Amino acid sequence: MPIHLTREQVLITLAVTTLILLLVAQVWGWALGLPLVPGWHLDLNALLSGCILGLGLNGLGAALYYLWLPFRTVTDEYLALVLEPLQPWDIFWIGLLPGLSEELLFRGVALTSLGLVGSSLLFGVLHLLDRRYWPYGLWAAVIGLILGFTMVSTGNLLIPVVAHTTNNWLAAGFWYGRKRR
What is the pTM of this model? Predict the structure, then answer.
């Protein structure tokens, strides 16, 4: 039986999850003596790099969506669950809150503690609703590898944050576009 959520339930879940992830990142980082933001350089190149990477991730996800039926099926279910009750302007929060909180936790603290593969696998597990969603979790783990490699190679957490946010905005925007057709 499919789950149906209200707009308020989705937004409250998003806000609470964001706060929990930020709290976990803060406590985990504090326990290990790590800064919450291990490299944050605000400049135009970082913003542009993040946008381009987010666009590329979204393009890879779109290709996978059209080429791999199990991924398409669970992605449609997942996005319908999250986006169906929302208004189009809620895309702002769907992109920004997970993009910021998940990157602070997974590319900020977990990457330092668990390494690239460990933090990426944990990121994939976070995106599993249940075992049936393994293609979506696998894709999230691949995105985690790419974002983690970006963090390691640039030392700038802003790039993965912007890429993650951009990817989420584009995925939600394309979902709304497909829904209208």
Answer: 0.94
